[in-house]
Amino acid sequence: MTDSVSRLMLWVGAALLPGLLLQAGFFGERILFVTAIAVAAAVLTEAAALALRRRDWRGVRDGSAALTGALVALALPPGIDAWIAALAAALGIALGKQVYGGLGQNPFNPAMVGYAIALVSFPQALAVWPGIDGTTGATPLSFLDQRGAATLSEAFARMEGFGYVTSRAWEAINAAFLAGGLVLLARKVIRWQIPCAMLGSLALLALLTYDAGSSASHGGPLFHLFTGGTMLAAFFIATDPVSAPTTPRGRLLFGAVVGTLIFVFRAYGANPDGIAFAVLLANLLSPVIDRHVGLAR
Amino acid sequence: MSIDRLALAPVYRLRLSAYGTRLCPVVGDSERVLRHQLLARGRVPLHAPTSGRVRHGRCGTMLHLDADGADAALPCSPLADWRSLAPEELIEAIGAAGIVGLGGAGFPAAEKLRAGCRRGMEVLIVNAVECEPGVSADTALAADDPDAVRAGIDALRRILAPERTLFAVAPDASPFDHDAMEVLVAPEGYPAGFERTLAEAAAGRRLARGEYPTDIGVYCQNVSTCHAIGAALERGTPLVERVVSVVRVVRAAAPARNLRLRAGHAVDDLCRQLGHHGPLRAGGPLTGAPLDAGGGIDKHLHAVTIDETTEALPCIRCGACAEACPESLRAETLYRLARAEHYDELEAAGLADCIECGACVPVCPSRIPLLDVFRGAKAAVNARTARRADAERAARRFAARRTRLDRRDARHTARVRMRKSRAPRSWLDDGS
After folding, report:
1. What value of ipTM does the predicted structure carry?
2. Contact B127, B224 (CB under 8 A)
3. Of B314, B328, B330, which has the smallest distance from its Cβ to A103's Cβ?
4. B371-380, Cβ contacts within 8 angstroms, sequence gap of 24 or more
5. How far is A85 from chain B (nearest CA, A)?
């Protein structure tokens, strides 16, 4: 059990490293540079905000701003312009955390606030992902969206670098984040309720709507679990303790809501991935869940 | 386990407003007293911890004893043939010796015994499980003076006549020679030394909210209290001294020192002798509350803590405190409500069920002193309730007075009207 906030942040940061390094391996080292810029922007914004609020700016030492910056960078496409990443991180800290009172007071996940602002402001920039079909633009998710009348197996056959259930790159990246997440669980930095409920509900919905991979299918459970930002969200984003409910049962419900919304947004939403808005909408429900879902004796 | 003895303090400060009541001093200002001499009467009699001159405190809430260094004692004689006395006489003797529970709570022993006798106890638990990590006062004393402990246990058995007597020990404790008493091994983990946990272990079920061990026939007495009872009966000494553990908290608790301390030992002198210049906390590393440097050590205090931890960060709502709470309270909710001073919601959220064990304190990553916050909130809630009760009483009295005055005015008006209707209205009126 970790006994200080900064040690918690360090462990989460360490658990992010495998996934980050794999992303750099598959998509280029530029992502490391972008991550560093985002972290710097987040930390500087927090220091400035604390100073403006007449608090001790050295509060950035707790590491929570740095972590937010890193998560924003990981959520954004690897090829994103550094200034957009910096802007997203800065706005996430400023409008998602500091205006509410800083550490421990944010009702919304600050990284997702930053990402959402970027998504709404620069939709084209955020749609550019490193190509897996030989050209830029298509993640496995958007590839499926645009496959026309092909069945799943036909589409996957056409996908370059296809691994077991999705593109090799994304499988590996998600597996790396899963490993990091399991380490966090073992160290009791996060608790199992949110990741399990989120992954469970996502997989369940994918399973229920799975029709053996027809042309209308949205993808099977394993595909969804190992594609896009699923594992990153499950273990690093949705688990932000401040914006999530505090009781075990409340967290199960919260995780289930996030997982359900992710599937719905992926299947029927305009954007290929739906994590940011799923998390933000679930954050809206946190206070209600906390009030009515209690601890068992 | 050795027990050290500190040098006598230059002054001993003894509280008169204690145990929810005010004790009445029986010695005058500037009077010379000897150790063991009775200083004050009341719910729990107070005795002099050493010889010296007594000074009355300014507000009547404290007695100061300036030690003369000679430590001369009033001669004490054992209570003759106490093993054949009736329970009520034994309880009287225990009360007269000023004995309170020495497990940390300090409840008057004689009152608890009387209540236990009235209800009828089936199980007596002698609690030798240290109540907090780092504290070893009880085991040190039990090993040092087992005869007095045994005498105390015999006295309790005579008073309560329980069917079973259990000797509760920690899972990793070295055995105490308890001559064929049944041993109860306390459950692992904190707060195993609390009487609630031990009563549940003995009864085999959880206590309901608001239910006490004595409600189910289980009487729990700390082993140091048994020692005090035994010493009072066998040697005639009232409670003026006990073994106190000094615990250091610097992220990980180091083994404690055990000291024999007299009641009322001045806190600033204790700090000086321990070589510590910062604040001292009364109690163990988990239940400790801040100690006033201008005060004295209470006679029931089982430990003092030297706490060197740093400032708290904001709460990040991780829920570790709720996970640690043995009463399954939502500690993070209680914390937020307490900080926001939403007292109505605090009562509904179960603040009164908090047993102040402090298990929530070491697990908080933001190092928030949760127990201090909850204690403060309880005090505020109590003050508020008392103010409300006063206000209601005043309102009732005002309403009653209003009614009385209105009635009197109405009678007066009626009388005047009657008088007027009889008397002629003017010299022209002939009454028709």
Report:
1. 0.79
2. no
3. B314
4. B371/B286, B371/B287, B371/B289, B372/B289, B372/B290, B373/B335, B373/B338, B373/B339, B374/B334, B374/B335, B374/B338, B375/B289, B376/B338, B377/B334, B377/B337, B377/B338, B377/B343, B377/B346, B377/B351, B378/B351, B378/B352, B378/B354, B380/B341, B380/B343
5. 26
Q: Which amino acid is at B162?
A: P
Task: Give pLDDT tens digits for A22-78.
Answer: 988 888 888 899 999 999 999 999 999 999 988 888 878 888 999 999 999 999 988
8 A C-beta contact, residue B328 and residue A297: yes
The answer for B 313-372 residues in CB contact with A (under 8 A) is 313-320, 322, 328-330, 332-333, 362-363, 365-367
Give the Cα separation of A226 and B254 in Å (integer).
Answer: 48
- What is the per-residue pLDDT across B332-376, written as a single tens digit (0 to 9) for each? 889 999 988 888 888 888 888 888 888 888 888 888 888 888 988
Name the one residue in this structure whose structure tokens are 């499926």.
A144
Go through B277-314 and write b for each residue having 16 or more CB atoms within 10 A of its CB, e for each that does not. Answer: eebbbbbbbbbbeebeeebbbbbbbbbbbbbeeeeebb
- Closest residue by Cα to residue A128 from A71, A169, A70, A80: A80
State how far the Cα of A148 lies from the Cα of A150, in Å rounded to an integer: 6
Per-residue three-class SS string for B21-47: EECEECCCCCCEECECCEEEECCCCEE
pTM of this structure: 0.69
Q: Which residues, 6 or more positions from A223, have their beta carbon under 8 angstroms from its beta carbon?
A: A140, A165, A166, A206
Q: Are A111 and A75 in contact (CB under 8 A)?
A: yes
Which helix (H) or strand (E) covers residue B304, if one does?
strand B303-307
Angle in degrees, 0-180, between the axes of helices A5-27 and A30-52, rounded to the nearest 10: 150
